[in-house]
Amino acid sequence: MLAIQELKAFAGFERCRFFKNDSLMKTQPGSIRASGFALVITLALMILLTVIAVGLLSLSSISLRSSAQGEAMAMARSNARLALMLAIGDLQKSLGPDRAVSGSSEILTATPAKPHTTGDWESWWDFNPAGSSPDYVGEKS
User: Fold this and answer.
1) Which contacts qualify for 111-119: CB closer than 8 Å, 24 or more apart?
2) Is residue 24 part of a domain?
3) Which range of residues forms the domain containing residue 48?
4) Of the chain's two ends, which shows fewer C-beta atoms within 10 Å, N or C?
5) Sign of the CA dihedral 13, 19, 24, 30?
6) pLDDT score, position 116
7) Smallest Cα–Cα separation from 119: which of 132, 97, 100?
8) Cα 20 to Cα 23, 24, 120, distances in angstroms
């Protein structure tokens, strides 16, 4: 009898019912339900952890994509700023020194012969009010 109790304790058969003649009977219905319940809970937790892992992976891929897009936007803005600075530099080079004044052709007449054109004139750094006024109509030589 002592050997059967040791066997029960070792093998985990504490829920099994034994007859007086020490033959093993089927397990009780409650123990089967308890084992099935543990299996269902374990599977549910595994599914929950899998869903959480997939959600975190998709969140990280979205954040990586948005950071790459933000980096591309910053690069495009810096390229546009550089192009604008180069265009202003070329315009200043073609106008000459800082004494030059630029203006649209509409300031001369209401309907100019060449609309949407811009001209430049030398400013009055040595302006003499008693002298002649600058020639705005003639082309620059």
Assistant:
1) none
2) yes
3) 2-98
4) C
5) negative
6) 81
7) 100
8) 8, 10, 119
For residues 19 and 26, what is the distance between their CA atoms, to the nearest angstrom? 11
Q: Is residue 32 included in any domain, yes or no?
A: yes
72-123 pLDDT tens trace? 999 999 999 999 999 998 888 887 767 677 788 788 777 888 888 887 777 7
Percent of the chain with pLDDT over 90: 26
- In order, the DSSP letters of the chain are -HHHHHHHHHHT-TT--B-TT-PBPPPPHHHHHHHHHHHHHHHHHHHHHHHHHHHHHHHHHHHHHHHHHHHHHHHHHHHHHHHHHHHHHHHHHHH-STTEEEEEGGGT-SS-SSTT-EEEEE--TT--TTSPPP-SSSPP-
- In a domain, residue 18? The reply is yes
- Domains in the chain: how many in total? 1
